[in-house]
Design goal:
183 residues; alpha/beta; 6-stranded mixed sheet; 6 strands; binds guanosine-5'-triphosphate; binds magnesium ion; lipoprotein; GTP-binding; GTP binding
Length: 183
């Protein structure tokens, strides 16, 4: 088997921290300044797993703001995994995830053809003391949207802080470890 390259797409409302999460994961850097992403771009990072296997994650950061969204959508195609991002201090960003997920499946051309498409749920900004989305609510969403074919696999839920670099790696490493491109 050759080297794995996985296309991973970050989606979610503007300002939830998609760009910051990727920056923290790739460069271990964070900035408080907000510059909205326009369109989308990717950075590739190679990860060595515990068993010595190497996986390259091609991580796509997309635009969340409504006026730039249509530009980002064009890059969903060919995705192997998708990270649904929200801000734990902003309930609306959590509420919008069902719509993001639906749009992703449609635009990526997955639709109902692959009920096993791997999504990961990621709540960001846990460093802020004003959480309004509970872990329980996040798990509820994950259960509702879990893979139902074969053995039930629940959508994994992560809570992170791109600012403090807490749990940021978890979601990406989970994808590197579990997602396999069908041969
Ligand atoms: P779009 O590109 O518009 O879709 O936004 P985005 O999801 O890429 O958000 P971005 O990473 O640009 O972050 C938006 C704002 O939130 C910036 O001011 C960041 O500094 C801030 N931010 C991002 N992550 C965190 C975090 O974990 N904690 C805190 N306190 N602020 C964060
Ligand atoms: Mg961005």
């Amino acid at each position: 088997m050759g080297k794995q390259l996985l296309k991973v797409v970050l989606i979610g409302d503007g300002g939830v921290g998609k760009t910051s999460l990727r920056n923290q994961f790739i460069h271990r850097r964070f900035t408080n300044a907000y510059k909205a992403t326009i369109g989308a771009d990717f950075i590739t990072k190679e990860i060595e797993l515990e068993d010595g296997k190497r996986v390259s994650l091609q991580i796509w950061d997309t635009a969340g703001q409504e006026r730039f969204q249509s530009l980002g959508i064009a890059f969903y195609r060919g995705a192997d995994a998708c990270v649904l991002c929200y801000d734990v201090t902003n309930y609306l960003t959590f509420e919008h995830l069902a719509k993001w997920r639906r749009e992703f499946l449609n635009q990526a051309g997955i639709g109902d053809t692959n009920p096993d498409f791997p999504f990961v749920l990621l709540g960001n900004k846990i460093d802020i003391d004003e959480r309004v989305v509970s872990r329980r609510q996040a798990r509820g969403f994950a259960q509702e949207h879990s893979i139902v074919t074969g053995a039930k696999v629940e959508m994994p839920c992560f809570e992170a802080s791109a600012k403090d670099g807490i749990h940021v790696e978890d979601a990406f490493l989970y994808i590197a470890k579990t997602v396999r491109i069908p041969q």
